[in-house]
Design a protein that fits this description.
Helix content: 40-55%
CATH architecture of the largest domain: 3-Layer(aba) Sandwich
Shape: globular
Number of helices: 16
CATH superfamily of the largest domain: Mur-like, catalytic domain
Structural class: alpha/beta
Distance between the termini: 24 Å
Number of domains: 2
Length: 482
Amino acid sequence: MTASGDTVLTRYHWAAGFINGLIQAPPTPAPGTPMEEVRARARARMDRLRAFLSVLGNPQEQYRIAHIGGTSGKGSTAAMLAGVLHAAGYHTGLHISPYLQVETEKLQIDGRLISGDRFADYVEHIAAAMEEWTRAGGERLTYGEFWLSLVLWAFAQERVEWAVIEVGAGGRFDLTNVVFSDVAVITSVGIDHVATLGHTIPEIAWHKAGIIKPGRPAITTVDDPAALEEIRREATEQDAPLTHLVPDRDFRVLASDASGTQVLDIPSGTVFHVPMPGEFQGANAAAAIAAARALRDLPRGPIDDAAIAAGLAATRFPGRMEVVQEHPRVVLDGAHNPEKMESLTRNLDRLGRPRRRIVVFGSLDSHDYLTNATLVAQAADEVIVTTPVATQRAAADARVLADAIIAAGTPANVVPEPRDAIVAALERATPDDEIVATGSLYLVGAVREHWYRGDDIVLACSSWPPRSSEHPHRGNGSRTGT
């Protein structure tokens, strides 16, 4: 590594450490906290963030915004829409949450991660502004408040024309909802984050629908009737034109395999290709297409199909049915709730049925891990249970997960450290087998280091840096994968 590379990494790690030092425990309300108290805390955080952004000069008002929410698919959809806007000639920022391996994933410009140096510069600026703010009597920002201030301010400094912003969780009381967006997209509604969003589909849909803005178009691919009713109600209240996309009426998945997904846009008759496997990417692509077409008052005119096709074809998203090698095939997917796990297991066989499927599985204890364990058991020939590590968040007991999988009739054993678990899976696999790592984005981020090192990602400003020969990725008797 060059001296300049060392300097960049030193500055990056300082900046990342500073932000992570703002993480508070516990990150979610204690069990049994009344929902009104949960919402009151969320409103207070949003008010504090708005006040701090005003000190920064309201950077979020210097560009146009697309806001993407949903239980599943929002990250992929956000990446697709950002790609389309960039292909249409717009200087485009993308904010996703959470990141997989490195913090700079959350701050992307025109399809590239922001450089480690620029990231550190922006952290220094926001940190200094926060110190001034606290000396003047303001409350110190939390991790999430600092991060969003950083993102919104950085986009202004980078002079983006459009910012595509992924919701963290929910929508109505999510910190990202301090922005006023030009279009809102709600991809799906499922049971997740029940401590803050509620235990029923209508409750959760009400939160998701909160990102719809007065008079601005909204797009949804939600198929649950109760969820759709909440979204329609919110759109009506906001006088926002709502486009509801329905499979086989508005779009159709023609094919989905390891090379990606072919999606037919039925009204135009155009077939689009997304280089990401999974039939579910069809709905995500349809949402991104509809959002791009719904944008108003564009200085370059309406976005045409050529830009849409180019943007979708250039979209990649790490850790979502990502094939990192072949022979044996290794698939990384951050599915962490039953809806996502069912979708993953349905789509795996579209990649080609392996001789044997080995699943590396782990979960945080805030998720429905026992249901996920049962779904994994049904899809696997063998499971290696491991323990993802997340700051201030507890992991599900690996032994409990293994016992549940064994009770469902599938062999399982425990390898506590995720990177050791993926190595164990590779050692057991033959070229005709398949390895799937899933259950948590934290787990996927850890095992992805076997193929792509975090420091290399920072230096390359890409989630797909050149692979180092120091990191073999072979199975038993296999050749180097792709």
